[in-house]
Design goal:
Blueprint (H helix, E strand, L loop, with lengths): L3 H16 L4 H14 L5 E5 L5 H8 L3 E6 L3 H5 L3 H4 L4 E5 L11 E10 L4 H15 E12 L1 H6 L4 E4 L11 E8 L4 E8 L7 E6 L3 H8 L4 E8 L2 E2 L10 H6 L2 E8 L1 H14 L1
Parallel strand pairs: 1-2, 1-4, 2-3, 4-5
Antiparallel strand pairs: 5-12, 6-7, 7-8, 8-9, 10-11, 10-12
Helix pairs in contact: 2-3, 6-10
The protein binds S-adenosylmethionine (SAM).
Length: 273
């Protein structure tokens, strides 16, 4: 995972001016939480919060949010603190594999980021969610990359023109490939002014069936899935379903602690006392 800090810090500098304002995507995520859990105020832990726009939207909606971000994107996230105050929003710059937080949360979210590193890394994170962070009746909402759509983009090259009026100051090139053996999207970017300085993110993708296998033994289970904001009946036949095959590059997994997860929480609580 040695590419992570450099990739998100550098892309953060390319896009922060244009993308660090609160928008429809952030408000849509709040609606998704309300759809799944109801709209009563909750304690929310957001993992990998980037510029903090979604965390700010949750705080605006009355939730109490702690948001963690590895890179200097956290500096943009801190811009929301003055308006919202520390009771409603806390931004922690740190690594969610090692960070610790006071108390437990009704909801843990990870928007558009799950899949960095190996399956073992993913499991390590899921176990922390189950054992250390979630309340026993809590819910985790995790965006998961859909391998079918990322695979269909293999070989695509895109030139993104600069648009200084909208805050995009760099002309960028993107090259997408897909590793079908490991179900990993390989997403390479460079500034056309510096073609020798390329950066690549590698994103492990999981179908819902693969996610269920990944979750085994982590203390979390797949309670549901939303695609494009709409709940999906996972027990139905989805043969030929265009939404899954072509339209949605990620889906929202709704995860809940299993009884085994609750036992691990109890064991950890006693060892902390
Ligand atoms: C694809 S971005 C998505 C950002 C934000 N969630 C959003 O939807 O706009 C993934 C984010 O997760 C952060 N991240 C990745 N690994 C992390 C870690 N171990 N600890 C904290 N943040 C991490 C990255 O720095 C990056 O900002």
């Amino acid at each position: 995972m040695d590419w992570v800090e450099d990739f998100y810090s550098r892309t953060g500098r390319w896009w922060a001016e244009a993308e660090s304002g609160l928008g429809d995507r952030d408000r849509g995520r709040v609606e998704r939480l309300h759809r799944v859990c109801g709209s009563e105020p909750r304690r929310v832990l957001e993992l990998g919060c980037g510029y903090g726009t979604t965390a700010a939207a949750f705080a605006d909606a009355g939730h109490q949010v702690v948001a963690v971000e590895l890179t200097d994107r956290a500096d943009q996230a801190k811009a929301h603190l003055e308006r919202l105050g520390p009771e409603r929003l806390q931004i922690v710059r740190g690594d969610f594999y090692t960070a610790t937080f006071a108390g437990r949360f009704d909801t843990v979210t990870y928007w558009n980021g799950f899949g960095i590193g190996s399956d073992a890394d993913q499991r390590r994170l899921l176990r922390r969610i189950a054992e250390e962070w979630l309340e026993p009746d809590g819910t985790a909402l995790v965006d998961v990359y859909n391998p079918l759509v990322w695979a269909s983009w293999d070989g695509e090259v895109e030139l993104l023109q600069a648009n200084p009026e909208r805050g995009y100051h760099h002309e960028l090139q993107q090259h997408l490939t897909f590793d079908p053996v490991t179900a990993t999207a390989v997403d390479t970017w460079w500034d056309t002014a510096e073609p020798e300085r390329r950066i690549t993110q590698r994103l492990r993708c999981y179908t819902p069936a693969d996610l269920r296998l990944l979750l085994e033994g982590t203390g979390l289970a797949l309670a549901g899935v939303l695609v494009g904001g709409e709940p999906v009946d996972l027990a139905a036949d989805h043969t030929g379903d265009a939404a899954w095959l072509r339209d949605h590059y990620e889906y929202l997994a709704v995860l809940e602690p299993t009884s085994e997860g609750a036992r691990a929480q109890d064991a950890r609580r006693y060892s902390e006392e």
